[in-house]
């Protein structure tokens, strides 16, 4: 069979036969063949050569070929954009796209998807919107692939209302489109919308993939919605949880952070356990007051041949923090560098500062901050401030607050914590001045609220908010419990009230804290003996902690409260934290 003559149409056919492993020299030889009159003017030939160079990792040559084109068409622009994306140079791909649209290029569906995907990766909203408008003008926006890419772009840019608008207008939605929207709500901190859309997906008969289920489980974790989490689990084959570490980790995390440690033992059934799975289980055990079991799991992990990593030590140090095991914490912190050759990150130092501060070793914690090889962040200083509150060290707290104001001047929690310290020390004028400073600086206190899941709906409760339809019965229930608790010797812990008012008024303020309202609601609406689960956005105060212990004894209920710090599992008048939190 005779060899084909090298014509201007031969090179494209030749380039399609090249693989990524093609010798780069062959590409250069082909380029030399093209240096003939009129050959290099054919955009089809030059685009094929551009693709060849891109596959051979000769991106500069690819760009040179593109620059020779007199009037690059949509295919040529897309080829160059794709070349930059495949090389991991996404920002440059977006820059090329901007040039393309500025030159008047009109996208086809493939180009629109490629550029929207690039914009999503670097969160370039401006360019993404230009592409989406062009796609609409060219009539390709109706493609499920283009519209899904637009949804993903808006999600990655944090524009959830725009993403939802595109999603709702899609003429057809496949599992990927639903997953992009569900995952977007989850990753942008909208757990209720995540679950609403996830369950709407079921009614449309669309089966979720594993990543969509992971998004729904993360939403359940955030809300403490255990029953909804169980429903989400039923949408997948159980074997997928046992064989897929990503799904398994999300499931363990959800069970542990919803206070259902018993169900989290699904860990023992998992057939594939990577380091992330082990770390999630160790951390979950620590958060729910099972630190010693967590330490035992570390031993099992090493015996299984899984090497401890830096995140493992964060889980271990968190365990030490929540159980007050200072000696163990010091030992693990020392061993991670000396035995495991792991350099501590700021998260590890933060755990140690938290551990020492809670234990009352405030000067040692402060010295550790001074000795850190990196600048302390707000989390580290906040841990020390928390210790100052527990141990009522107003002088050190004032110093710490100055550091925190520099780092996060609009975080009201720092001001409130110091105000609490002043109030506990009867420094009412200082507390009042601090509140006045907050107003002057425009810093608003974050309102406390608690929520529970009941009959597939999340119910929120706030102090002073009487909008809930059961509020009269809730108040009556709390009054009944209050009378019974006083016969048991209960006295309100009024020093948590930050205002200099009469004790009677302080007691009234304490009665209707949000977590108490949520618990009373559950007592009214759930069956006797049923476990009560409450989530709160802020730390549980000492008075509420005492009250919930008594309620658990009076009602013979197990009450699990997750605040922004840890889990409290109340049963028979005791708490899993052993009053250490």
Automatic annotation (TrEMBL):
Residues 489-581 form the DYW domain. GO terms for molecular function: RNA binding; zinc ion binding. PPR repeats lie at residues 73-107, 174-208. This is DYW domain-containing protein. The keyword Repeat applies. It holds the Pfam family Eplus_motif. Residues 7-18 have a biased composition (Low complexity). GO terms for biological process: RNA modification. Residues 1-25 are annotated as: Disordered. It comes from Triticum aestivum. SUPFAM superfamilies: TPR-like. It comes from the Eukaryota. The lineage of its organism: Eukaryota, Viridiplantae, Streptophyta, Embryophyta, Tracheophyta. Keywords: Repeat, Transit peptide. The keyword Plastid does not apply.
């Amino acid at each position: 069979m005779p060899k084909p003559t090298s014509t201007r149409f031969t090179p494209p056919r030749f380039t399609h036969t090249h693989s990524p492993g093609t010798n780069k020299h062959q590409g250069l030889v082909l380029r030399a063949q093209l240096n003939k009159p009129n050959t290099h003017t054919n955009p089809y030939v030059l685009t094929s050569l551009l693709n060849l160079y891109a596959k051979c990792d000769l991106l500069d040559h690819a760009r040179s070929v593109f620059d020779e084109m007199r009037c690059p068409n949509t295919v040529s622009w897309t080829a160059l954009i794709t070349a930059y994306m495949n090389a991991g140079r996404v920002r440059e791909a977006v820059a090329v796209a901007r040039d393309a649209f500025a030159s008047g290029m009109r996208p086809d569906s493939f180009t629109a998807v490629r550029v929207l995907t690039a914009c999503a990766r670097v969160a370039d909203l401006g360019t993404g919107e230009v592409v989406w408008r062009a796609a609409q003008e060219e009539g390709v926006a109706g493609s499920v692939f283009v519209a899904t890419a637009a949804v993903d772009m808006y999600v990655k840019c944090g524009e959830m209302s725009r993403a939802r608008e595109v999603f709702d207008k899609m003429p057809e939605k496949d599992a990927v489109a639903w997953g992009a929207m569900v995952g977007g709500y989850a990753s942008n901190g909208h757990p209720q919308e995540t679950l609403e859309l996830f369950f709407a997906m079921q009614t449309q008969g669309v089966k979720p993939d594993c990543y969509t289920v992971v998004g729904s489980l993360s939403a359940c974790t955030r809300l403490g919605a255990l029953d909804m989490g169980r429903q989400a689990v039923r949408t997948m084959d159980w074997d997928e949880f046992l064989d897929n570490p990503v799904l398994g980790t999300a499931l363990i995390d959800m069970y542990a952070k919803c206070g259902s440690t018993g169900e989290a033992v699904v860990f023992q059934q998992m057939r594939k356990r990577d380091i992330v799975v082990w770390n999630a289980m160790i951390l979950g055990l620590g958060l729910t007051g099972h630190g010693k079991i967590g330490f035992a799991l570390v031993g099992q992990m090493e015996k299984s041949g899984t090497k401890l990593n830096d995140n493992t030590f964060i889980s271990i140090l968190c365990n030490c923090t929540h159980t007050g095991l200072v000696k163990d914490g010091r030992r693990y912190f020392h061993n991670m560098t000396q035995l495991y050759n792991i350099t501590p990150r700021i998260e590890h130092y933060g755990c140690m500062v938290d551990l020492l501060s809670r234990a009352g070793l405030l000067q040692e914690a402060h010295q550790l901050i001074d000795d850190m090889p990196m600048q302390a962040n707000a989390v580290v200083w906040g841990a020390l401030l928390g210790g100052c509150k527990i141990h009522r060290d107003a002088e050190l707290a004032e110093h710490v607050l100055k550091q925190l104001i520099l780092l996060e001047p609009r975080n009201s929690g720092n001001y409130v914590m110091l105000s609490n310290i002043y109030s506990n020390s009867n420094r009412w004028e200082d507390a009042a001045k601090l509140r006045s400073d907050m107003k002057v600086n425009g810093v608003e206190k974050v309102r406390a609220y608690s929520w529970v899941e009941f009959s597939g709906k999340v119910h929120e409760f706030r102090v002073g908010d009487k909008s809930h339809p059961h509020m009269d019965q809730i108040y009556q229930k709390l009054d009944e419990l209050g009378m019974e608790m006083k016969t048991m010797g209960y006295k309100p812990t009024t020093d948590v009230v930050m205002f200099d008012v009469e004790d009677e008024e302080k007691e009234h303020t304490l009665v209707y804290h949000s977590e108490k309202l949520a618990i009373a609601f559950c007592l009214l609406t759930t069956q006797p003996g049923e476990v009560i689960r409450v989530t709160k956005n802020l730390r549980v105060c000492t008075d509420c902690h005492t009250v919930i212990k008594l309620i658990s004894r009076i009602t013979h209920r197990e009450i699990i409260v997750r605040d922004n710090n840890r889990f409290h599992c109340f049963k028979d008048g005791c708490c899993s934290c052993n009053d250490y939190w």
